[in-house]
C-alpha cells in the first residue's frame, strides 16, 4: 500500500507537510466535499476537530446532512454544533438521480456536488462510490487517509489510538488493510 493509496491524492509526507498536492504548491484553501461516513466516523470518536483543522470547512449536500443529523444518529449533536460543516444544494438533480442507480443517495449527491463545484477532495469511504468518483476524475480520500494526513501534518502523534477508537465505535477496517496502513505509517 503506497502513500498515494492511503491518502488518495497526496503523493508524499513531504508534500503533505508543505501543503502540496501532486508535487505542486497549494495556494488556495482546499474545497472539500464529504459523504456521511467520514463525518460520522470522526463525530463518534469526538475528533471532528481533525476535519476542521485539516480542511477549514467541509461542504456536504443536503442528503448527507439529513443522514448525519437524523435523530438518534451517533455523533449527531457534535455534528449539529460543528460550525465548519456547510450544506449546499445539488443543482444537477438529474445526474444525482442517475448516480443513485449505482450508489446510495448521499454518495450520489456528494459526487454530483463535487463535480459541480470542482472540488479538490471528495471524502468518501464506500468502495463502489470511490471507484465511481475516480472514474469521474475526482480526487478521493477516506477516513484512514484523513487520519494519515493528520499525522503527517503533526495534528496527532500516532494513528493507532485513533484507528483503535474508530474500530471500537463500529468503523470496519479489514485486518489486512489495517496492518498495511499501520506499517506504511511506521506503527506496526
Give a written overview of the molecule.
52% of the residues lie in helices and 11% in strands. By secondary structure, the protein is mainly alpha-helical. It has one domain: 5'-nuclease (Rossmann fold), CATH 3.40.50.1010. Strands 3-6-7 form a three-stranded parallel β-sheet. α9 links the parallel β6 and β7. α3 packs parallel to α5 (62-68), α5 crosses α8 (105-117) and α7 (93-99) crosses α8 (105-117). It is globular and about 45 Å long.
Overall spatial form: globular
Task: Note the run of SSEs as H and E.
Answer: HHEEEHHEHHEHHEHEHHH
Mean pLDDT: 86
Q: What's the total number of strands? A: 7
Cα(first) to Cα(last) distance is 14 Å
Strand order of the largest sheet: 3-6-7
User: Can you tell me the CATH superfamily?
Assistant: 5'-nuclease
pLDDT under 50 segments (min length 5)?
1-6, 9-28
CATH architecture descriptor name: 3-Layer(aba) Sandwich
State the name of the first-level CATH class.
Alpha Beta
Total domain units? 1
Give me the number of helical elements. 12
Please describe the biggest sheet, giving its number of strands, its sense, and whether it closes into a barrel.
3 strands, parallel
What Rg do the Cα atoms give?
Answer: 16 Å
Strand content: 5-15%
Helical percent range?
A: 40-55%
Q: Write down the CATH topology.
A: Rossmann fold
Structural class: mainly alpha
